[in-house]
Each structure stands twice: as C-alpha cells, then as structure tokens.
Amino acid sequence: MGNIGWVQLLIVLVIVLLLFGGKRLRNLGGDLGSAIKGFKKAMDSDSDTNKDAPPQKLEQQNQQQDNTSSETKQETTKEHNTVNKQ
After folding, report:
1. Residues whose CB is less than 8 angstroms from the CB of residue 50 and which lie 6 or more positions away in sequence, other chains included
2. pLDDT in tens, 4-24
3. Could you give the residue ranges of the DSSP H alpha helices within the chain?
4. What is the CA radius of gyration of the chain?
5. Do residues 20 and 28 touch, judged by C-beta distance below 8 A?
6. How far apart are CA 86 and CA 68, in angstroms?
C-alpha cells in the first residue's frame, strides 16, 4: 500500500507536466538550482570566515558592529529631531 511504483510516478509526472508546462518546469528547476547553489556558497563563506578568525577577533567584530549600529541609531534620532523642530 505504501510503496510507490514507477507507474504511479509516471502518472504524477505527466499530470505535473500538463499543469505547468515544460518551459515553466525548466525555469523552476533552474531557479531552484541557483537558489541552492547560492545558499551553499553563503554557508561555506560564512563558516570559512568564522573558522579563520580566533574567538577574540570575533568578539571584537561583534562589538564594532554593535557600536556602529548604536551610532547609526543616534544619528537617525538627531536627524529626526531636527526635522521635527523645523
């Protein structure tokens, strides 16, 4: 009952082909492949970056990012206050 044979797979493939058409399926497959490649590339580059840096270096980078984001928030608040005063 639970096993799917080649005949059932063939029927499903024919129905999918009729619903979407060959061109849409090719485009969908290409888009899916590109997305998976991009995801793998991002994961590899992220893990390589974190492996190479010693733990202290990572902490310093995180602190710099926190400082940058807080400075940006302060600048945005100043600009917002200046606009409101005018």
Report:
1. 58
2. 899 999 999 899 889 988 888
3. 6-20, 22-52, 55-85
4. 26
5. yes
6. 27
Please report, as a single letter, which amino acid is at residue 13.
L
Task: Tally the residues of the chain.
Answer: 86
Scan for tokens 């991002």, then name that residue.
42
Angle (nearest 5°) at CA 15 between 34 and 28? 10
Here the tokens at position 82 are 């200046």
Q: Which band of pLDDT confidence, cut at 50, 70 and 90, is reported for residue 52?
A: low
The residue among 54, 24, 28, 85 whose CA lies nearest residue 77 is 85
- Per the CB < 8 A criterion, the answer to whether 82 and 74 are in contact is no
